[in-house]
Structures are given as structure tokens and as C-alpha cells.
Amino acid sequence: MTTTGGTGMSHWHVSEELAGRYAAGSMTETDAWSVEKHVEACGGCAARISAAVRARPETGAALDAVRAGVLAAVAAEGAPVRGPARSARRRSPGAVTRAGRLLWAAGPALRAPWLLALVLVAVGALALAYGAGAGEAVRPLLLVVAPVLPLAGVALSYGRHADPMHEITAATPSGGLRLLLTRTAAVLAVSIPALTLAGAALPPSAGWPGAAAWLLPGLAMTLAALALGSYVGCRTGATSVAVAWAAVVVLPVLAASPPATTGAAAEAARYFAGPAAQAGWAAGALVCAALLAVRRRSFDHLEKL
Amino acid sequence: MSGIEAVNTVEVRALTVRHRRTTALDAVDLDFAPGVHGLLGPNGAGKTSLIRVLATVAAPSAGRVELLGQEVGAGSDHRGRAEVRRRLGYLPQEFGYYPGFTVREFVSYVAWLKEMDAAAVPAAVEHAVDRVGLADRIDAKVKTLSGGMVRRVGIAQAIVNDPDLLLLDEPTAGLDPEQRVEFRALIRELGRTTTVIVSTHLVEDIAAACTDVTLIEAGRIAYRGTTQELTDLGGTEDGEAQRPDGNPIERGYTAALRAHRAAVANR
To answer: Which branch of life, at top level (chain A) (predicted)?
Structure first.
């Protein structure tokens, strides 16, 4: 079918009568193909066909509509004066914006059970403080628990054990650190406002810093989990950091019987309060980020069995 | 498949894969050029281990793996591997999906992971979904689809980037007979330009779609040849025309397997 004509077939031309029949659509299909093939190479005949088509009211109107449509589409694309390739790419119709795409790519990170746990902690803290009358004892509890929640979110969103699509993502170029960081960012973007706002709504407690005090510890621990995860996998990395935190800080507070709670909590407050503690967390976060940058390739490495 | 000497897109040398104590693949040498290649073997022979190494998911314990001209083994360069992964399509034997995803979202998500040009993604997704015959279900949630349809969604995500190397692990599992026929036509078409490697335990998949067969048994290559050669092996095994133990290619498969086992036993 593609071998029509050959090269030396242009010894005929489209007559006015033939052009009229073509415009009217009364030509046989094979003859119409011949005409179309011919006008690709012959300007005079193309002009004759064009005039014949315009002369007919219904085809003329259709042509005008197509012309208007094309012009409108070109205008909508924006003036392609500077960098046409770039602007066409940015304004591609139907393509989601970059921010939207990132959010969407991160979406699966926010696993339902984890979101539920986050809401439970935030709402539970408020209920405990105002509903159960625990008052100012609650904010230290929330501060102590908060850094663990992003860890859980990371552990539940990336890797062979947690991600149902892992077998597919592992074979893609973005399946490594890029995907992990996108999902970690999504986890932080949800947990930071939720936990900080809940903390701010709680009554302040004596000797304890404000609701934002957990941010640097939380960030440092998340980065530590990722850095550790580059050696042992994200689930193990996050679990190890969470267990270490629980052993050092959370358990003493929770285990202390009510009269001693204040003492244990005061002990725990040392990890948050004051510029020295916060600077320590910031330094820790930087070290972990640097380690993660060094180990960035480990996440796209092949699975070792 | 005759004519121009095709360039090998897959070159595997002395590939060994161990899972803890057991050896899944034992010093395997293989080459593949564009076309449709069947990997056949009993369950547990090492087919999935081979596919996962070729998909750059699992690391070889030893040996060299070169895909599309790039080394992708354990010590390989990150950039080279990312380059290969952009041109790869992989249908795992089992895969999951996020509960909220529609077919379109699922395939688009994989296109994003494969770093495709954002402007080209919507059309590529529709084309891929259309090729597996799910155009009318493109906006349905994946979780509402039947097993065979989910399998086809898996094939769509594998081909969305027009891969140069397509790895399909048990692609016909869960497909009904009509869908299998359509699927084989699709991979024959893809095989004109792409290196398609199909792992299967169904001999009829091989007969209908593949130009050549690699038989794997207990981590070793038991047989390599064209589909016709394997069929001939079954036909000449003994003279009986009608036998209850399957068609010529099934008998060829059994004969090749037996010959390999005998050779191993005598070693």
C-alpha cells in the first residue's frame, strides 16, 4: 500500500473538473489517493484543489473552522518567541504541574494506618489535656513521643517490606534515594504541622520548652534513620532509632509512677530545652545529612539476597 | 529472524546467584538480541532469579551482566544503570499497587518513576493501556479489576516507556485463553524492535510467541535452540504419531530436560 506511484508519474495534472469532483467528494477512493499523492509535490494542482474546496460553501466553512481552531490553539500555547521547546514543555496541556506531580508521587507514602496513628496521637493529647484533666503533664508526653512518629511513617512507606510496588520501583531510575526523600518529605509535611499545632494548643508546662522544641530532634532522628537505613534497610534503620529513643527517653517518663513522673519528665526535658540541646540536635542532623549524601547511591544498589 | 546480524542487547557471563545456601543460577552464559525469547523450566529452576537480575532488581553473586551495552552488575556505575533502567520494562511475577490508584494513575506513576518526559506521559499511558486491551477501564480503580486484568495493567506499566528490553515473568498467569492469544500477538509485535524475554512454565506460550527457547533446569542452561528445533526434538524422539503425553513441543521439552539430566548425572 505504501508503494504507490514511484518517482516518474507527474506527467499529468489535476484539471478544474477533477478538482471540482475532488472537492465534492464524488471521486473514487483510489483516484482521490492519486490526487492527494500528486498535490504533495505539485504546487499548481494544490492551488487548484484548494480553490475548488474553498468555493464550496460547506467545505469552505469547515476549512475556516479548522484554521480558527489551529490559531486559537497556537495562541493558547503562548508566544513561542523565546525557547519554544522549553515553553512548550512547561505549558504542556494536561500535564500536572511539577508541585502537583511531586505531591502525587509522594501520596502513597501516607499510609492509612500511619495517618490514623498520627491523628490519634494529636487528638489523644488534646483529649487527655482538656477532657481528662491531665493538664500540663501532657505536653512533655507529646514532645517525647512526637519524634518517633515520622520514623514510623518513613519505615512504613519505603522498601521491600513496606511498599507494595517495591518490585516495580526497584527496576526504575527513580526508585532509590529520590523516591525515599520524596516520601520522607511527605511524611514530614504532614506530621510536623499536626504535632506542632497539637502541642501549641496544650497548656504549657513548667520547665518545658515550647511546642516547636521537637522539630530539630525529629529531623535529626529521621535523617539518622535514613543514614542508618543506607546500611541495613529503612525499616531496620527507623526501628533501631525509635528503639534507642524509647530506651533512653520515653520509657523512663512512662514507667515512672505518678508522683515521680515530674522528676523523670524533668530528666527528659534536658533533651529538648536550652540552646545547647538544640544545637546538639542540629549538629546531629547535619552529620546524618552528610552521611546520607555520601551514601546516596546505596539506595539504588541492587538487592543482595 | 534471519538476515541481518542483530547486536546483542543482553550479555550474561558466568552469572551466579545464590540465595543464602542454595544456588539459584550456576555460572550461566547467555546472549539475547531483539526478538521474543522464551525462558522455560520447571518451577524453582532459576527463571525468576535470572529475570530479577536482568531487571536490575537483584544483584548477581558473581559474574558479569551487560544490558543495552552497559554493565549493571554489583560494582557498576550509577549513571549507567539509571540509563539502562530508563529503557527497561519489567513485569514481576507478583506486584502490588496502592489501593486508591486507577489504571491511568498506576501506569502514569510508573512512567514518572522511569523519568519519562512529562509532556509525553499522558499519551504514552493511553497507548500502553490500549495495547493491553483495557482502554475502556482506564479510569477504573485497579482494586476493582479481576486478576487477569491486573496482570494486563502490569504489562501496560512495563511497556509504557517503549522499552528496549522487556522482561516478563509469567505474563500469561491468570489470563483466560482469549486474552492469552491477544497477549502473544502483542509480544510478537513488540519483539520486532525490542528484546523481549518471557519466563513461563507454559510450553504453549513458547510455541505461539517465541522465536527461540532457553531451557533452565536447577540453575543451569539445559537447552538452547529455536522453537522449531525444540519441536523437532519431540517429533523425532520416537515414531509414534499420536501419543497421550502431549504435543511435539511438549515432548521436545521433556526430551531436552531428560537429556540434560542424563548428561549431568554422567558428569
So the answer is: Bacteria
- For residues B70 and B88, give the distance between their C-alpha atoms in angstroms, rounded to a whole number: 12
Q: Are A119 and A194 within 8 A, CB to CB?
A: yes
Domain residue extents for chain A: 16-90, 103-300
pLDDT class for B53, splitting at 50, 70, 90?
very high
- 10 Å CB burial of residue B263 (0-12, 13-18, 19+) is exposed
Q: How many CB pairs under 8 A join A and B?
A: 97
- Residues of chain B whose C-beta is under 8 A from some C-beta in A? 17-20, 52, 55-61, 72, 74, 78, 81-83, 85-86, 88, 90, 92, 94-98, 100, 105, 109-110, 112-115, 117-119, 121-122, 157
Query: What's the CA gap between A227 and A287, in Å, rounded?
Result: 10
Contact by Cβ (8 Å): B116, B128:
no
- In the predicted model, residues of chain A with pLDDT beneath 70 are 1-10, 76-110, 256-266, 301-305
Q: Which amino acid is at A276?
A: A
Rounded Cα gap, residues B232 and B235, in angstroms: 5
- Closest partner CB to A302 (pick from B19, B57, B86): B57
A182: closest CA of chain B, how far (Å): 12
ipTM exceeding the 0.95 mark: no
Residue B225, judged by CB atoms within 10 A of its CB (0-12, 13-18, 19+), counts as: middle
Task: Report residue B39: phi and psi, to 5°.
Answer: -110, 120
Q: What residues of chain A lie within 8 A of the CB of B118, using their CB?
A: 89, 92, 95-96, 101
Does A175 lie at the interface with B, CB-CB under 8 angstroms?
A: yes
Give chain B's count of helices (H) and strands (E): 9, 10
CATH code 3.40.50.300 region(s) in chain B = 1-87+164-175+190-267
CATH number for region B1-87+164-175+190-267: 3.40.50.300
Nearest CA to B91 out of B174, B166, B30, B194 is that of B166
**How far apart, in whole angstroms, are the C-alpha atoms of residue A196 and residue A125?**
12
Inter-chain touch B97–A300, beta carbons under 8 Å: no
Q: Are A305 and B18 in contact (CB under 8 A)?
A: yes
Specify which residues B213 forms β-bridges with: B38, B225
Q: Which residues of A touch B92 (CB under 8 A)?
A: 167-168
The whole-chain average pLDDT of chain B stands at 87
A-chain CB neighbours of B25 within 8 Å are none
User: Which residue has cell 520524596?
Assistant: A182
The pLDDT tens digits for B126-144 are 999 999 999 999 999 998 9
CB contact under 8 A, B17 and A165: no
Distances from the Cα of A133 to the Cα of A41, A138, A195, A272, angstroms: 89, 10, 20, 24
